[in-house]
Design goal:
The chain is of the alpha+beta class. The protein contains 6 helices and 6 strands. It is about 35% helix and about 40% strand. The longest helix has 20 residues. The chain is globular and about 50 Å long.
């Protein structure tokens, strides 16, 4: 596969991930991972996982996402290509509803996504535990990010 095709595959996979997030299809979101792909959280709150390894681990982690948050829009999306045609950096915001309170929310992310022939091989999720804590109205960072 040439470099242009690999870049298209990476961007198409990011499109699918964001579409599934908005469709509240977290099982479908996790299904985009390669069987041994990873999801890492460089800024994870104490007590929260820093690395998930494998599609099943990602599926378990995101399974309860929509019990907390219901995303309705991806906003301010900017993509950056890298020297690696399999990797794209995506800056974006997500707006939606907090399930427990019905309040609107806005969260911001920077994701470094690497895609191989079997799906996402690496997803570095740079998000703010403090922002999540504020959105969910929780006092403990570990509690807010589980």
């Amino acid at each position: 596969m040439d470099d242009d095709a690999r870049r298209r595959r990476a961007h198409t996979t990011v499109d699918a991930a964001l579409d599934r997030l908005l469709a509240h299809d977290m099982a479908g979101f996790a299904a985009l991972w390669a069987p041994d792909g990873t999801m890492t959280f460089p800024f994870a709150a104490p007590g929260s996982p820093r690395t998930l390894t494998g599609r099943d681990a990602v599926a378990d982690y995101v399974a309860g996402y929509n019990d907390l948050l219901l995303p309705t829009a991806v906003v301010d999306e900017v993509r950056h290509t890298t020297g690696d045609p399999d990797t794209v950096v995506v800056e974006f915001g997500v707006h939606g509803t907090v399930v427990a309170s019905g309040a609107d929310y806005a969260l911001h992310y920077v994701a470094v996504v690497t895609v191989g022939p079997d799906g996402i091989t690496g997803y570095r999720d740079h998000w703010s535990p403090l922002e999540v804590q504020q959105v969910l109205g929780r006092t403990g960072l570990a509690e807010a990010t589980r």
